[in-house]
């Protein structure tokens, strides 16, 4: 007889879609970079500590994913990726040298 393993503690994730709230939080923090995420969440009208923690944790994951995607984009736009060889460095392409 197969039994599923007993899980302890709280289940992982709430299943609540907070993408619109995270987008508003990101916009608020871009407009007011001096704010910390928790302060910005409180300014958005949330007072429940569980909701604040959930949004803060989801925002942290959102920023990490955004940084990773940005670094991948920046790596893709390097001169080597743009088709320049080592012989065509910016110094070698300057006129008068």
Q: Percent range for helical residues?
A: 40-55%
* Class from secondary-structure proportions: mainly alpha
- Report how far the terminal alpha carbons are from each other: 81 Å
**With helices defined by DSSP (H or I, 4 residues minimum), what is the helix count?**
3
**Overall pLDDT level:** 81
Number of strands: 0
Mind summarizing the main beta sheet?
none
- Residue share in β-strands: under 5%
Low-confidence stretches: none
What's the order of the H and E elements? Answer: HHH
Characteristics:
49% helix, flat, mainly alpha, 97 residues, 3 helices
Condensed summary:
The protein is mainly alpha-helical. 49% of the residues lie in helices and 0% in strands. The chain contains 3 helices and no strands.
What's the topology here?
Blueprint lengths: L18 H13 L5 H7 L5 H28 L21
Helix pairs in contact: 1-3, 2-3
What does this 3D model show about the protein?
With 97 residues, this protein is mostly helical. Helices cover 49% and strands 0% of the residues. It has three helices and no strands. Helix 1 (19-31) crosses helix 3 (49-76) and helix 2 crosses helix 3. The chain is flat. The mean pLDDT is 81.
């Amino acid at each position: 007889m197969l039994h599923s393993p007993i899980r302890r503690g709280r289940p992982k994730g709430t299943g609540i879609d907070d993408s619109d709230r995270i987008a508003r939080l990101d916009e608020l923090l871009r407009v007011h970079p001096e704010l910390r995420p928790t302060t910005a969440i409180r300014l958005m009208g949330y007072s429940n500590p569980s909701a604040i923690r959930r949004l803060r944790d989801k925002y942290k994951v959102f920023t990490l994913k955004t940084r990773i995607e940005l670094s991948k984009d920046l790596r893709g736009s390097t001169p080597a990726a743009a088709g320049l060889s080592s012989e065509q460095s910016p110094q070698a392409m300057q006129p008068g040298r």
